[in-house]
Design goal:
The protein is α+β, with helices and mostly antiparallel strands. 43% of the residues lie in helices and 17% in strands. Keywords: Cell membrane, Membrane, Transmembrane, Transmembrane helix.
Length: 970
């Protein structure tokens, strides 16, 4: 029954409409991508990628369709014309039934099949755009591999391209053989079961030629496979082993010759009828592959190598050591034997004490709730769970500084206008020196509040581009509808509004562009809203890592971007790596596995992909302007051949290192993920002797984080002076410790100068194997035991809990000093929950100090006066001075009373009363300070009284917001 004319027309119309909608969304995606790249000034990157991918797609699709389609056409053209039942009577066989079903639709099936095959092949080839660009733009390394004497660039750029081409041709020939055989079968070219002739001459010639081409490709593959043996896993270490060099490489050459002979025999079968030649060649190929390619290398490995593996593999282990250290950038790592004293004389300790700067007591993974409570200002602002460590000059001295930006969070009233037009940006930068803690255990901020104080100079405080920015925002125009900051710095109930005046974002003033973005985000309000005007811009791709990844797709980015104030702007600094898995002889390991530690497991920094790598360089430093989103890429390792290859491919998108301003240079640092990779490698490859490496007795590993079992301890930034360093001043340094495999005692201390002006050579202090030095886990156990009574006092009636901060290790007095801050916070999940510093734990050898300040703890370990860290401390009492003045005594009594009342309220769980008591305590301490200043200015100074230290350190202040605690014990 035929459908009426109108319903029959609806089907093609509906198909056409669906096709138009699909094409619109494809066009919207591509065109809006181009608009975004144009807005950041990197259209050359977009066009290079797009043209390359389209070229590879078309090339792959057309070649595959031509090869496969051509062979199917040949099979169809040479079909026999004898009709049904050619081989065995007139009965209709299975192939005849297939032909009867397929033949009426053969053109549709043929074209549709080739289109689908072309789409899959083209998509696969387009995904190889990096391999193509590396091959076309390859830069020599100037180093040769020890086996073939070829430049490393051959293995990095040319060999992967050869393998890609061979894989494509193998796929095309195999599919051609299968589909040509099917066509021959369906159209009577041969029968699988037949008493007489099995195949026509045309079918035999065609299929023999195809198999001959396959075997010819196999000969080429055998020949090129020998170069791939520099990536072999057969031996003791990665790279070509004794068996590979002395058995497999000759075997590959022999197999290539045999494959050429077999290919010739298959081609001979084209002109000589019969199946003997193809059968002989196929048998010869299989037999030689088994005997020469498998059995012979196995016999060499079993009877020559294994009985004498150490001597046989020595040369190849050496090759692996040299290549690995070079590829991971640790060839210049310096190993120094370090005695690691556990005791020192007073003179030694006193001379060393002056080299310790203000050790960072603020743990950036712990104090985020403290920053948020004290500096959040309003509930719609937020801080990241992991703060960052940078260095700034405070009072003329460079200090480790914990920093963060105040980003916008979810609006209190969720709707499209609030989400995308009003709450568009964060506001402000917050910074506190890591060693400066106020009297209540809180950070001593040098930049804070709204509007921000200018402790680090004036700067643009608005954060339109950040790690937690909304997916997209519509900004700009004459009408000020964007929330800028709360009125009166958060004290008032109103707000100040603004409108964006930066150059970032894509203009959406015309209807067509708004239509495209409405399609991109599936949001009709982008078309209908009257608040979007001719000056409006849409901001998206706002995360700093995402922006850099878009404009530099050839880079892998560090997991921890950090903000810095540079020339009056807040810039996000992102480290970029060039990586490869194709450096000959270099050890391959998973990038994600090497960089995984406590910070990535807690998602405090971005986890890395688990791709295998064996070459890495910190080749690019990138910045993203927090206000206008400007992305700048700077070449950091200008001698990296891989970076120079990408620079040739993408033109001038990467600026020279000389363009980095001195102000930016002050904030560049050695990146964490690179250091994590290098410490993982140096756990084995600090051993450079082949025999010692074979034994493996001196291998190390990264210790477990004492605060979180089963995960590796992260490295820490800290300012310190390395023993034997050329500089007499402490330096901003990235550090880690290492322990022996299967043991917890300390094996080595590893550090690298993290400042931009350093030569970035890793230094390793190797501890004596005959002396047991506690590792981080053992040091933490000692702290837990010796500080148990003090920590229990801080856990007031079970209402509070303690949190261990980062366990820092630093060289001191010829040994190693452990420093750990301990924080306290209420247990109850309420507004009074955030950590404040309560105690500082110090350990040198077997001596442990527990103080309310770092100086107190150091004095307990080294003796009175040895713990001077350069921090502001109260001078000691002077004997023989007059009595305390009455107003001082009165202030002390008031402070003690307020403290006692606060403790009672805390035990009762009355946090309102506790907050009031804390306010009275703060006022009493201010009165005390005034009274002391007045007394000091008088004719006779009295001794400086010290209030109960517990009032300053043992309890948290009153009004925090709830937050998870990283590590707690109660």
């Amino acid at each position: 029954m035929r459908l009426p004319r109108r319903p029959r027309l609806l089907v093609p119309v509906a198909i056409a409409l669906v096709a138009l909608v699909i094409l619109f969304f494809i066009f919207a995606g591509i065109f809006t991508d181009w608009l975004w790249f144009d807005s950041v000034g990197y259209t050359s990157v977009f066009s290079t990628m797009l043209v390359t991918q389209l070229l590879l797609f078309a090339l792959g699709a057309l070649l595959m369709a031509a090869i496969v389609g051509g062979n199917m056409m040949i099979a169809y053209r040479v079909r026999p014309l004898f009709g049904i039942g050619m081989f065995g009577g007139g009965a209709q066989g299975g192939a005849d039934r297939y032909r009867a079903a397929v033949d009426p639709h053969r053109k549709v099936i043929f074209i549709a099949g080739l289109v689908v095959l072309g789409l899959f092949t083209g998509s696969s080839m387009a995904g190889q755009w990096k391999t193509w660009l590396l091959f076309l733009n390859g830069t020599p390394f100037g180093k040769t591999d020890p086996q073939f004497g070829m430049d490393v660039s051959f293995f990095m750029f040319t060999y992967p391209f050869i393998r890609m081409g061979l894989n494509f041709l193998f796929t095309a020939v195999i599919i051609s053989i299968v589909l040509a055989a099917i066509v021959h079968y369906v159209y009577g070219g041969f029968r699988l079961q037949s008493p007489g002739l099995h195949a026509t001459r045309a079918a035999r010639i065609h299929l023999s030629a195809l198999v001959g081409f396959f075997v010819l490709l196999k000969a080429v593959a055998y020949w090129t496979d020998k170069f791939g043996l520099v990536f072999s896993n057969r031996g003791k270490v990665f790279g070509a082993s004794y068996t590979d060099v002395n058995a497999v490489i000759p075997a590959k050459s022999i197999l290539a010759v045999i494959a050429l002979i077999c290919a010739a025999l298959f081609f001979a079968g084209v002109v000589r009828p019969g199946g003997m030649l193809p059968g002989v060649s196929l048998g010869l190929l299989v037999l030689s592959a088994v005997l020469v390619g498998s059995v012979y290398p196995t016999l060499v490995e079993q009877f020559q190598v294994k009985p004498n593996q150490q001597s046989k593999e020595q040369e190849f282990i050496h090759r692996n050591i040299v290549a690995t250290r070079d590829a991971y950038g640790v060839a210049n790592a310096q190993v120094t034997q370090y005695g690691a004293k556990t005791q020192g004389t007073q003179q030694e300790l006193q001379s060393e004490a002056s080299t310790i700067p203000g050790v960072r007591l603020l743990d950036p993974s712990v104090v985020s709730p403290t920053f948020e409570q004290l500096q959040q200002i309003k509930g719609y602002y937020q801080f990241p769970p992991q703060l960052d460590v940078d260095r700034y000059k405070v009072d003329g001295v460079s200090r480790d500084t914990v920093v963060a930006v105040r980003e916008i969070g979810l609006p209190p009233d969720r709707n499209w206008i609030n989400d995308h037009l009003v709450y568009t940006h964060g506001f402000g930068f917050v910074a506190s020196p890591g060693s400066r803690i106020d009297g209540q255990g809180k950070p001593d901020f040098i930049v804070k509040d709204i509007p921000p104080t200018d402790g680090l100079g004036r700067f643009e405080p608005r954060i339109y581009f950040g790690e937690n920015s909304p997916e997209y925002s519509i900004v700009g125009g004459d009408k000020k509808i964007e929330l800028d900051f709360p009125e009166s710095g958060g004290q008032g109930s109103g707000q100040e509004n603004t409108t964006y005046t930066g150059k970032g974002g894509v203009p959406v003033g015309n209807f067509f562009t708004r239509l495209l973005y409405a399609g991109k985000y599936g949001e009709a309000n982008l078309l209908l809203s009257s608040d979007i005007n001719s000056k409006s811009r849409i901001l998206y791709n706002r995360d700093p890592r995402d922006r850099v990844q878009q404009v530099a797709p050839f880079l892998t980015l560090d997991g921890d971007p950090y903000p810095a104030i540079v020339n009056g702007r807040i810039l996000w600094i992102v480290d970029g790596y060039t990586m490869s898995e194709d450096y000959p002889y270099s050890e391959r390991r998973g990038f994600g596995d090497m960089t995984r530690d406590t910070s990535t497991d807690r998602l405090l920094s971005a986890p890395q992909p688990r791709d295998q790598i064996n070459y890495i360089r910190n080749s690019v430093k990138a910045t993203v302007d927090a206000y206008d989103g400007t992305v700048s890429l700077y070449a950091w390792d200008e001698n990296d051949p891989l970076l120079n290859t990408w620079r040739r491919a993408f033109g001038s998108v990467i600026r020279p290192k000389a363009d980095i301003s001195p102000q930016l240079m002050e904030h560049l640092r050695y990146p964490e993920d690179l250091f994590k990779v290098q410490r993982d490698i140096l756990g084995q490859y600090h051993v450079t002797d082949s025999n010692a490496f074979y034994g493996g007795q001196d291998f190390w590993k990264v210790p477990e984080d004492p605060a979180s079992s089963k995960t590796k301890q992260p490295p820490y930034y800290i300012t310190l002076k390395m023993p034997g360093a050329a500089s007499t001043e402490p330096r901003f340094t990235l550090t880690t410790t290492m322990v022996p495999n299967n043991r917890d005692n300390l094996a080595a201390f590893m550090a690298v100068d993290a400042t931009a002006d350093a030569n970035a050579a890793i230094r390793i202090l190797q501890l004596p194997s005959d002396t047991t030095i506690p590792g981080p886990k053992q040091a933490q156990n000692t702290f837990d035991t010796k500080a148990a009574s003090v920590l229990n006092e801080l856990r007031i009636g079970g209402t509070t809990e303690t949190l261990n901060g980062n366990l820092l290790t630093l060289p001191f007095g010829g040994g190693l000093l452990y420093v750990e801050p301990v924080y306290v916070q209420p247990k109850v999940q309420n507004s009074a929950r955030y950590p404040t510093l309560a105690r500082v734990l110090v350990m040198f050898g077997s001596d442990v100090g527990i103080g309310t300040t770092l100086k107190d703890a150091l004095d307990q370990v080294f003796g009175q006066g040895q713990g001077d860290t350069g921090q502001n401390t109260t001078p000691p009492d002077k004997p023989g001075t007059p009595a305390v003045a009455p107003d001082v005594t009165q202030a002390l009594d008031a402070a003690q009373k307020a403290y006692d009342e606060g403790q009672q309220a805390l035990k009762a769980g009355d946090f309102t009363a506790y907050g009031e008591a804390q306010k009275r305590l703060a006022q009493a301490l201010q009165d005390l300070e005034s009274a002391l200043a007045k007394q000091k200015a008088g004719p006779s100074a009295a001794p400086t009284p010290t209030p109960n230290p517990a009032s300053a350190t043992s309890t948290p202040p009153a009004t925090p917001a709830p937050s998870p605690s990283p590590t707690s014990s109660s």
